[in-house]
Amino acid sequence: MSLTMEKSLQNRERMIDAAKVEIVGPSAIHEFSLPLNVIGNTELAADEAYKNYYWVNGGVKEEVLQYEYPSRRYAAGVLFPIDAKIGDTVGNEVVLDNATEEKKPVERDAVVEEDSEEVPIQNDERLPSSLGVTCNISNDTKVLTVTFEGARYKSHMVIIKGKGNRKWWLRETVGSKVDLQMEDLLKKRVFKQRLPIFNKLNEEITSIHMELHIQCREVYGQHLTTVTVTNRSKIGKKESSQSDEVMLFQAGVILQTDKQGRFISYPKHYQRNLPMTADEANDELLYRNKINYAFGHGCSMTWDDTEVVREIQSTFIPTYETTSMTPDVEVIIDGKLEKINIKMIDLVNAKSFEQLKMILMPLIHGYRQWIEEREAEIPKLDAKLYNVAMCNLNLCKESLLRMENGLQHLNKKQVKDAFILANKAILLQQVNGKKTRTASINDTEITFDISYEDTVFKLDKLQTSTNSWRAFQIAFFLMSLDSIVNDESLEREIVDLIWFPTGGGKTEAYLGVAAFEMFYRRILNPKDAGVDVIMRYTLRLLTADQFQRSSRLMCAMEVIRREQPRYLGETPYSIGMWVGGSTSPNSYTVALEKLRGLKQGKRDSEFVVAKCPWCGCTLGKISNGKNTLIVGYKKVENRFVTFCPDTACDFSAEIPVYFIDEAIYKKKPTFLIGTVDKFVQLTWNPKARAIFGIDENGQQRVTPPNLIIQDELHLISGPLGTLAGLFETVIEELCTKMVKGKHIKPKIISATATIKEFGIQTKCLFGRNQAKLFPSPGLDIDDSFFAKVAVDENGEPLPGRKYAGIFTTNVGLLMAQVKVFSGVLQEGNQILMDERDPYWTLLSFYNSLRDLGAGINLCSMDIPTYMRSIQNREGYKENRFIKDPLELTSRMQSDEVTKTIDKLKVELTAKNQKQVLDVCLASNIIEVGVDIDRLSMMAVVGQPKTTAQYIQVTGRVGRRWMERPGLIFTVYSNRNSRDKSHFEHFIEYHQRLYAQVETTSVTPFSDASLDRALYAVIIAFLRQRFSRVMAMEPNVDEYIKIKKDESFRDFVKNLIARVKLVDEEQVKSFKSAFLKFDKLMQSAKFTCWKASDKDAQGMMYMSGDPIASKVYPNAIPMINSLRSVDATSLGKITMDISNVDATTTSIDDDLEDLLS
User: Residue 932: inside a domain, yes or no?
Assistant: First the structure.
């Protein structure tokens, strides 16, 4: 039986219902439930007491709670008596839930993971007794109908033979309805009345006193109305359990207008003439059709998505389904609407420019037509949106023009050849090495479970391939060509930002451009072999995952190069991973030591290359019980070499993948992937100059990198972005080449799914005046031509990710997790085996490691216990036993992260149920780089710090939406006012999710940034760009000579220019800091750069080292990381460089002129 979307949608609703039953209630009445006789006291035999019961109330079957007080059973949708305190309720011990905090040490190599912001619960705090709604009602509405719905639970004595009396609770549906004249409400402004509550028999419940309160005011010609209901019942003086009898459960308010009226949207920003930034104005245009009709007070709101809304209602588990976006583009070809399908094999087989043009022109024509259609819509818009609409379409026209120019470049042989080869490489990368081939020992022979021919395909086998470019990918490829092939192109100065939803294919878009650049450079000069593309990330998990993908591309390019070495040169195409020592060994010595440990059986493989990128063959330890063999890694002349153990593979001699620093400096891989942090090594290690094509004498031997790719740009913000922006100055300088006497900067491409005010961020980070978003937004967020809402054959939107909000009122965040997790995990066991996989594994995200540690404890103890209680209560035949959860956090080793991800990829079958993960608890390490399309269910515990993080994290599930759409439970903390606000505005927030992304802050030339990292930047340039002498020591004579060197003077000029561009007020601070450095360099106090036991007269030591600061009092602290993780230390003046002897600190006239 195959899994279908229809079945998955049904199961997704079951999961939401399971959470609702545990949080709000009531429980379902099952087929096997028995009627309970409630006339008088009920007598039951001992064996009958544990069966499931209901009672009949006014002809309706109602829930019976056995052995649980209602206030303990349900955690939301409860209106407590007025002035009720936590200590007054029977279930108060549930409220005060405190799990043991985890005390494990934390290593933070990612964004700093902060502590929980939950405020401790006090026993005398009041519990919520009211709920409300604020909405906007049209001025033609005559009557507003207010309906209150809920339930009360009344106690009932049950006598269990042999065990005594027990108090059970009978649910009784109650409600009230009142019609109000809008004219009267507007006259009174504030309206208040008692709200009588009736049961199904229309009997008034006099023990419960409800009050209705309405405030109505006229705003912009409409009626802004707030309706609240309050439980003003009093808690009796008798036993505390009686307080449950005057509580209202499953409470809710429904508002309805008459047929003449309706609920309307709040006035938009532009309608209220409020000042807006360019980004805010753009959001107003793009989201103008996303309408918010109401928000809650102590609850959330929901309504039917119809053209005219006449009914809204409160809810305690709001849901919102985002639309799924499709990259498929349809254009009119020969009078027919056809889907653009640009197959890579067709581009590879094209023999001429005319053939390429024939394949690509329909896309360009279609985009032009779409722009013209959108222009025709502008007059229909509100006049206040005209300017921003015209601006957006002008940007679309610029993209169109760049695409056309790129297409014309293909008329040149060398460009065409590089384009065709890039398409060939991308195609081979997509089809090869996808299957994992497991090696095993058969006697003395190594065999493989999958043959080489079944996993590696050459071009002759791909003539019928259907692999295609998504329209935005090939469009971006075309529009990037001019900035790659034309050194003098103005587009080379533009930072191109690929902006596409998570999982949309951004990686393939920039990999295509990267492949073109690497082929084109070799075609121009086959001997110009060096690092050509630098791709940077911020999180090691992303780096490791993308490294595997990019490695396949480089293997494909190398196979192609071997076919035509005279055209593409004799130097192999290769890839390097330049990251910290926690992810990969930084020296051959360390790598070989790990290899020895692997051979001795001390540890599993810790090498980042765990399988051959080309054929998928696993590397590492294999055994048949008798013999154990290490395959894929070997020692060759004191070097560590990675190779494929299958002799049939093209890379059985060596895989051109390098992840050891020594190998990277020697091999100079064509494609270098690294973390942002790693580039601080430019300050510490002069060998890194090889990356930029500079030899040990400071001569430029080959062209420096031409292309810089910065993925997940939104993560380069805050303190990390600030220091990265400062360090970017030296990286750009080292990547700048001289062509015909002109300085040619590298092309910069970035990508993200979540960003705001990108122009400011890219200016601060890269010092470029222009940044362009692609695809350029049009007039509506649901249609940018290259991405639009996916619809079915009837034009209805297809399912997307569904968000469900959980906000409890009388239990804390820990117990909320127990209830939700237990409910959905147990419900997963009730789904048919063939349909279980999408919602079997729960991926849970935490904002802090402290909260995650508490979650681990819950999954080990509380949740299994609660799941058993659900089984008993609901009468399920079998209980689900969950295994200990795994975690994905920054404190894990890289190989542990990889293993956990591999386990998450295992799909559930009837045979492997015990091997499939039940729960995985994760921190922000999953924000990017986790692409596991089987996952469809997630919990987010507490609202993340930023909306960008929320989008990125929840984008990890529901990627295979055509079969298994995603479900996200956002479990809010009732101790956090920000969480409560997000809950009350749940639909409003989620329908404009991307518009809610916060502006990032990057201040590379602030005083704090200059104090912390300017010296590191200048030293990096001195050690990487100039002679061996300067690389090894801060030699005064050499420094004085370098100051007159044109390249150094250009570097200083460019620094000043960038400070002026980003923050002109900081120019004075920059010059002052630079002069202090100049004095320090000429003080002649240092004999080497790094202070050590061998030479205590070193100039610098790693900041955060408290011992070094005492041992080397004359040295200065220098950053070794771009993150704010340095140890706290006391300040101490070790050297006053402002009072250094004037004879050694005089500033030459040239430098003084330069700084002035």
Answer: yes
Whether 427 maps to a domain, the answer reads no
1020 and 1105 inside one domain: yes
DSSP secondary-structure letter at 613? T
Rg (CA), the chain: 33
Residue ranges of alpha helices (H) inside 997-1124 are 1007-1025, 1028-1032, 1036-1042, 1046-1063, 1067-1081, 1106-1111
Q: What's the rounded mean pLDDT across residues 815-827?
A: 98
The residue whose two tokens read 């006697």 is 443
Q: What rounded mean pLDDT belongs to the chain?
A: 90
**Are residues 156 and 105 located together in one domain of the fold?**
no
Structural contact between residues 789 and 325, judged by C-beta atoms closer than 8 angstroms = yes
In terms of residue numbers, what domain contains 444?
433-457+526-711
Please indicate, yes or no, if residue 308 is contained in any of the structural domains: yes
Buried b / exposed e along 852-862 (16+ C-beta atoms within 10 A): bbbbbebbeeb
Task: Say yes or no: 149 and 275 in one domain.
Answer: yes
Q: Does the global pTM surpass 0.85?
A: yes
Strand partners, 221: none
Structure-model confidence comparison of residues 1121 and 92, the more confident one: 1121
Confidence of residue 1122 (pLDDT cuts 50, 70, 90): confident
Rounded Cα distance between 1136 and 1114, Å, is 10
Backbone angles phi, psi at 103, to 5 degrees: -110, 10
Supply 513's token pair. 């451009």
- Say whether both 49 and 185 belong to one domain: yes
255: closest CA among 316, 210, 317, 302?
Answer: 302
Distance CA 1102, CA 1109 (A): 9
Quote the tokens at residue 1039. 């420094």
Closest residue by Cα to residue 414 from 517, 345, 288: 517
For 52, which DSSP code?
A: -
| Spatial distance between the Cα atoms of 1101 and 1087, rounded to a whole number of angstroms | 14
- 1027 and 938, same structural domain? no
Spatial distance between the Cα atoms of 642 and 394, rounded to a whole number of angstroms: 51
Per the domain annotation, does 385 fall within a domain?
no
pLDDT tens, residue by residue, 33-87: 999 999 988 999 998 998 999 999 988 999 999 988 999 999 999 999 998 877 6
Neighbours of 556 (CB within 10 A): 26
Number of domains forming the structure of the chain: 4
- 716-749: b or e for each residue (b if 16 or more CB lie within 10 Å)? bbbbbbbbbbbbbbbbbbbbbbeeeeeebbbbbb
